């Protein structure tokens, strides 16, 4: 049986993205050693304008492998839950102004290059209305050693 070490990360300030569909760090990342396996769960509260949407990506170091990524968007404006299993890049038009949140679960098997697993985010389409990753977004990580 493999043992895991728990890690926890949280954002300390809002991240405002305006007029950009380029993926950037959400402020959530976890260091990962060579040949290490991690199970990540991110909870990201966001607010959006009436257009622009959201897109996310879990980015491991070079040579790392995403074994599984599942993203769920809780759209509070439309009262819907949008699951997206087994998709490495999640995209959604999210045309409901207001507060929403994302839950992302991923399993990463790293290669020989140590680095960081980074939760990236962007507007789905560049828009003058802001996408904001709100203070208090969290990343829970289980680090598995064999």
How is this structure best summarized?
With 146 residues, this protein is mostly beta strands. It has strands spanning 3-10, 15-17, 24-32, 37-48, 54-59, 65-75, 80-85, 89-92, 98-109, 115-122, 131-133, 138-145.
Q: What is the share of helical residues?
A: under 10%
The chain-level mean pLDDT equals 91
Task: Report the sheet-strand fraction.
Answer: over 45%
Integer tally of domains: 1
Characterise this structure.
With 146 residues, the chain is mostly beta strands. The protein has one domain (3-145): Sandwich (Jelly Rolls). The protein has no helices and twelve strands. It has strands at 3-10, 15-17, 24-32, 37-48, 54-59, 65-75, 80-85, 89-92, 98-109, 115-122, 131-133, 138-145. Strands 1, 2, 4, 6, 7, 9, 11 and 12 form an eight-stranded antiparallel beta sheet that branches. The radius of gyration is 15 Å and the shape is elongated.
SSE order and pairing:
Blueprint: E1 3-10, E2 15-17, E3 24-32, E4 37-48, E5 54-59, E6 65-75, E7 80-85, E8 89-92, E9 98-109, E10 115-122, E11 131-133, E12 138-145
Antiparallel strand pairs: 1-12, 2-11, 3-10, 4-9, 4-11, 4-12, 5-8, 5-10, 6-7, 6-9
